[in-house]
């Protein structure tokens, strides 16, 4: 009797133990599945965050490129305005010179050669003070243009052609044009601008090594040029593209310190912030 009761008790205990172990196992399985589900959710969220960060970086790069294009466009507008002012001044000078020559002709009178000339330079039938007529009926032509005027006109033409090629996106032609200008007029009135825009054309062509030389020449040779700050900024940009991050950071920090609150100063700060995010 006792043996039967003991056996029954043992069986009950064993059944209870099995049920408890099964319950724990089932609970553990459920917990593992829940943890796995949560882990998958976290992975999905992290992937979404990474994709968002990639889009933000891409958007930042697009904004920076647009700002660079805007700065280049503003520079081109400034150069075009300067060019227009120069052309207007040259035109005024030409008109003034023409008026002066016509006034001299009118006051002094120029008689055409020939036997019919009378004393005092007045032809028969001509009214005193009337403007003389050349043998072929044409107006008297002014003397030849001076050498300085010829050189000034050629200097303007060479620079204008190169700048027009740059604005039209013909960068190889612009590079050749600005190099021609600097060869013919190394001390010309627009030598600093020609050197800067030569660097811009080389930068757009991704010839960063040549662009650095051009931009650095602006900084060292023309330190008082209005393009000196922009040139130093572009030196830093070129060094960044060439992965010379230490030099790039030094030059960009110099721009940010020297030109605080300006457009080029903000551009330098933005590139420095980007380098911080990239760990460079």
Give structural attributes.
single chain, 280 residues, mainly alpha, Serine Threonine Protein Phosphatase 5, Tetratricopeptide repeat, 76% helix
Number of domains: 2
CA(first)-CA(last) distance: 86 Å
**Share in helix:** over 70%
Radius of gyration: 41 Å
CATH homologous group name of the largest domain: Tetratricopeptide repeat domain
As for the CATH topology of the largest domain, it is Serine Threonine Protein Phosphatase 5, Tetratricopeptide repeat
Task: Determine and state the CATH class of the largest domain.
Answer: Mainly Alpha
What sequence of helices (H) and strands (E) makes up the elements?
A: HHHHHHHH
Sum up the overall morphology in one term. rod-shaped
Oligomer: single chain
CATH architectural type of the largest domain: Alpha Horseshoe
Largest sheet: none
Number of strands: 0
Q: Outline of this structure?
A:
By secondary structure, this protein is mainly alpha-helical.
Question: Can you offer a commentary on this structure?
Answer:
The protein has 280 residues and is mostly helical. It folds into two domains: 1-80; 146-280, Tetratricopeptide repeat domain (Serine Threonine Protein Phosphatase 5, Tetratricopeptide repeat), CATH 1.25.40. It has eight helices and no strands. α2 packs antiparallel against α3, α3 (171-184) packs antiparallel against α4 (191-204) and α6 packs antiparallel against α7 (245-258). The longest helix has 107 residues, at 2-108.
């Amino acid at each position: 009797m006792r043996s039967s009761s003991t056996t029954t008790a043992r069986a009950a205990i064993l059944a209870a133990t099995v049920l408890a172990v099964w319950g724990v196992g089932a609970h553990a399985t459920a917990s593992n599945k829940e943890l796995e589900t949560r882990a998958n959710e976290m992975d999905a969220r992290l992937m979404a965050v990474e994709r968002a960060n990639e889009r933000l970086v891409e958007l930042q790069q697009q904004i920076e490129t647009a700002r660079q294009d805007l700065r280049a466009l503003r520079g081109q507008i400034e150069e075009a305005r300067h060019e227009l002012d120069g052309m207007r001044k040259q035109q005024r000078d030409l008109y003034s010179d023409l008026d002066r020559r016509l006034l001299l002709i009118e006051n002094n009178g120029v008689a055409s050669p020939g036997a019919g000339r009378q004393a005092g330079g007045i032809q028969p039938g001509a009214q005193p003070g009337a403007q003389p007529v050349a043998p072929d009926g044409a107006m008297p032509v002014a003397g030849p243009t001076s050498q300085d005027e010829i050189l000034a006109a050629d200097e303007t033409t060479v620079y204008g052609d190169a700048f027009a090629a740059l604005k039209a996106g013909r960068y190889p032609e612009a590079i050749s044009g600005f190099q021609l200008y600097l060869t013919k007029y190394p001390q010309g009135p627009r030598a600093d601008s020609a050197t800067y825009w030569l660097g811009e054309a080389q930068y757009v062509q991704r010839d960063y090594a040549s662009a650095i030389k051009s931009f650095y020449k602006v900084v060292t040779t023309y330190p008082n040029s209005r393009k000196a700050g922009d040139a130093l900024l572009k030196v830093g940009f070129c060094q960044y593209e060439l992965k010379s991050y230490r030099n790039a950071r030094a030059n960009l920090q110099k721009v940010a310190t020297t030109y605080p609150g300006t457009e080029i100063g903000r551009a330098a700060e933005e590139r420095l912030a980007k380098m911080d995010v990239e760990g460079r």
